[in-house]
Amino acid sequence: MDSKYNIVSIIRKKRDGQTLEKEEIQHLIREYTADAIPDYQVSAFLMACFLNGLNDEESAALTESMLHSGTVVDLSEISGKKVDKHSTGGVGDKLSLILAPIVAAAGVPVPMISGRGLGHTGGTLDKLESIPGFTVDMNLDRYKEIIGKHNLVLAGQTAEIAPADKRLYALRDVTATVESIPLIAGSIMSKKLAEGIDALVLDVKAGSGAFMKTTEDAIKLGEALVGIGTQFEKETIAYVTNMNQPLGYKIGNWLEVEECIDAMHGEGPDDIMEITHLLSGTMIYLGGKADNVKEGIEISKKMIASGAAFQKWLDIVEEQGGDVEMIKSPNKYPKAEYEFVIKADCDGYLSEMNSYEIGMASVEMGAGRKKKEDDVDPQAGIILKKKIGDKISKGETILMGYTNKPSAIEAASDKLFGAVTIAESKPDDTHLVSHIIDKDGSRAFEL
Amino acid sequence: MDSKYNIVSIIRKKRDGQTLEKEEIQHLIREYTADAIPDYQVSAFLMACFLNGLNDEESAALTESMLHSGTVVDLSEISGKKVDKHSTGGVGDKLSLILAPIVAAAGVPVPMISGRGLGHTGGTLDKLESIPGFTVDMNLDRYKEIIGKHNLVLAGQTAEIAPADKRLYALRDVTATVESIPLIAGSIMSKKLAEGIDALVLDVKAGSGAFMKTTEDAIKLGEALVGIGTQFEKETIAYVTNMNQPLGYKIGNWLEVEECIDAMHGEGPDDIMEITHLLSGTMIYLGGKADNVKEGIEISKKMIASGAAFQKWLDIVEEQGGDVEMIKSPNKYPKAEYEFVIKADCDGYLSEMNSYEIGMASVEMGAGRKKKEDDVDPQAGIILKKKIGDKISKGETILMGYTNKPSAIEAASDKLFGAVTIAESKPDDTHLVSHIIDKDGSRAFEL
Fold first, then answer.
1. The pTM is what?
2. How many Å separate Cα A185 from the centre of its chain?
3. Alpha carbon of A10: minimum distance to chain B alpha carbons (Å)
4. pLDDT tens digits, residue range A194-232?
5. Same-domain pairing of B280 and B186
6. Pick from A295, A340, A47, A153: nearest CA to B17
7. What is the tally of helices (H) and strands (E) in chain B?
8. A418/A323 same-domain check
9. Which of A366, A359, A340, A342 is nearest to A421 (CA)?
10. Is ipTM strictly over 0.85?
11. Residue A49, domain CATH
12. Do A176 and B46 touch (CB under 8 A)?
C-alpha cells in the first residue's frame, strides 16, 4: 500500500465534492486492480462519484488509470488511421455489422472490440456468434494479424484489455452505480482507447430503448465521451440518435444479421441506412479517405452499391471461422420452433413503441440474458411489420415473435402488446439524428 | 433472501433521493446482520444515505432495526424511571463519572452503557478501566443485578446490544461515512434505547474538539436525536455545549478520574460543575425526583455537598471490582515516567485552544488509540495550567504533558504548542451551554 495516499481520505474528498488529484485516482484504481483495496471501499467511492460527479480532468484520469490497468494495443505497424465506432446500446441496433465492412472496404482500418448484450439491449458479439462457427475470441497477435490482412477485425474484450474496468463494471452493476455519465464515459473510453485506435465515432442513443432516456442526458454523455477522446488526442465525434423505437425491423441475434445482409445488398430499411451512412461516412472522413463527412457518406454508399462492403463481410466471416454459405443464403438458417403474432386492437396510427419493453420481451424469449451466465438463443427475436407513423387497421399484424421457449410466449406477448400505442392521428416525424458533438466545430454540417 | 425486496433497488431509491419504506430499511439491516448482503452493497447504501440524508421516519426505522438486531434490556423490575446521559464526545469530557453517582444518589436509576475512546476523544470505559481492578465487562444478568443494588451500573457494550450498529459502525469507519447526522443519531439511539431507559439527556458537543465543528450541525444532530427519542416515547432533552476548549483542566484516563474525585469532593472546576449540574439536574427532573430542571440542579448540588455522590461512587467502584483505596487516596496512583512543559512564547491572553489537536496529542502520548487494537496508557495525559481568557506572561507554563513514550514527546509538544493561541486582548466570554432542544417546550428555562 502506497503510504502517501489513504483510501478513506480519497473517498471523503469525493464525498465532500472536492476535486481529486490524478494521482489519487491512479492510486485507487491501481490498488483495487491489485486487490489491495476491498470492494466495500470502492463501492462507497463509486456512489460518491455517482452523486457528486467527476470533472473532465477526473474523468480523464479515471479513464487513463483503467486503460493502463491492462494492455494498450499498439497498431502502429498497420498503416492508415485506425477508426472505430461505439454505440451506447439500443434495441435492434445492428449498425456495427454493416458499417465496419463498409469502412474497411473504403480503406480505413477498423479494429473493433465489442461487447455482449446487456439488459434490454443486444450486443454485437452475440449477433456475430449467431453465425455458425464465427469466433470472436482471440489473442492480441491474432487480432493484429486479422486487421493487418483485412483492415477489419471483430473481436471480444480479452482479459488483457482494461481489467480494472471489468471489475469496476461488475461492482457498479450490484451497487446501483451504473447510470453515471462520467463512470459510463470512463468505462467506454478506457476499452476503446486500449484497442489501438486513432479516431472514434460515437453513436449516443437517447430514448425509451437507450440507457439515456432523455436527449439532454445523451448530450451530456456525448460531451463527456468526446471530452475524454480529445484529452487523449484521438479525434472523436459523437452523434445523438433516436432510440424511441427499435432500429430497422428485426430484433434478435440472427434476425439482425439477416437484416444486415439485406442492407449490404442495398436493401436495408431507411432508418438503418441513414444512420449507417452517417456513421461510416464520418469514419471514412476521420480515417483520411474523404475530405468531409458528406464525401464520406457518398463513399459509404458506393461501398454498398459496388458490392465491396458485402465482399469485405464475406472475407471477415470466413477469416473468423464463420459459415460463409449461411451469409450467402440466409434463408437456410434454421427457424425458431414457435412463432406468435401481435395484432392491432383498433384502427389508427402506430404512435409509440416502448423499445425498453420490446427489448425486455426479446430477452424473455431467449434473445438476451437475464444473468451473465445465461446462453442466448440465436433464433429468438421479433420482426416488426409496422413502425411509428404507419397507418394500421384493427386486426392487422404489428409484429411477429419467434422463440424456442413456449413458456415465454404469454408474458412476452403481453409485454409486446403493452409496448405499442395506437393513436387516432399520425404522430409528428422525429429526427433520427438530433445532435452532433464535435470539438472541432468546422466539421459540423447540416443534418 | 426475502424476495419482496431487492437490495439494488433499495440502494437506487436512496441514491435518487427517494424516501425508503420502513420495511425496506428493516430488510436491509436484517439481511446484513444475517450476512445475506455483502459489505460492498451496504457501503454504497451508506454513502447514498450520507449524501441524500434520511428523514425522521427513515431515521426511526433505521434505529429500530438496529435496536432489534439484538437484545433490548427489560428493566421493568427495577422501580423508578431509568435515565441515562450520552455525550457525543469531546476532549476532557469526564462528566459521566461525576453525574452518574449524583443522579443515582438522588434516587434515579442510571443504567449506563458507555463506549471507548474514538479518534481524538476520550471514552468513559477507558477512564473507568484506569481504576485498578475496575471491570466494565458483564453479562445482562449481572448488569441488572448491579443496577438493582445501587441504582447505577457502568458497563461496556456487550455483543447482545445492537450488533447491527456494531457492524455498520465498523463499515462506516473505513468508508468515510461516519459524519452523517442521521447515521450518527441512529447509532447512538439504537444503543441507548437497548439499555432499558425511560428517558435520556444528551450532551451534544460543538467546536474544535467535537465531531460537530459548528453549533448549527450540533443543533441538527441534537434535533435528530431528540426526534428519534420522541418517536420511541422516551423523554429526551438535548443540550448543545461548547467544545472549543477541553473540559476542566485534566485530559487522560486516570488524570480525568482524579479530577472527577475532586469534583465529587466539591472541588471541581467551574466549567465542569456548570455542565454536570445542568445534565444531572435534568436527569433528576426526568427521573421524577424534581418538579423542574432548576430544582433538579439544586438536588444535584446537594448530592455533592452531602457527600452522597462520593459515597455512591465508592460503592459502585467496589461493586465493579475497582480499588477503592485508590479513589480515597488518588495521590497513591503511579505517575507517568516522563513529563514535559509547554510555555508561553509571548505575553497576552490565551485566546484559542484547538481541542482536536490537544486530543490528538494525548493520543500520541498514549492516552488514546490510533487503531482499535491499541492499548491505552492510563497514566498518559495533559494538565492544563491556563484556559481560554486567562492572562499569561512569556515563559509561564500553559500546560504539562505526561507520557511513558519518550519517542512521542517531540511530536506531541509541537502539536500542543501549535494548538494554543495567545492574543493581545482578552477574548469574549463564550457560553458553555448554547441551546436546549426539547420537544416539550414547557420545560425550557433560562440558561
1. 0.84
2. 13
3. 9
4. 999 999 999 999 999 998 999 999 999 999 999 999 999
5. yes
6. A47
7. 17, 13
8. no
9. A342
10. no
11. 1.20.970.10
12. no
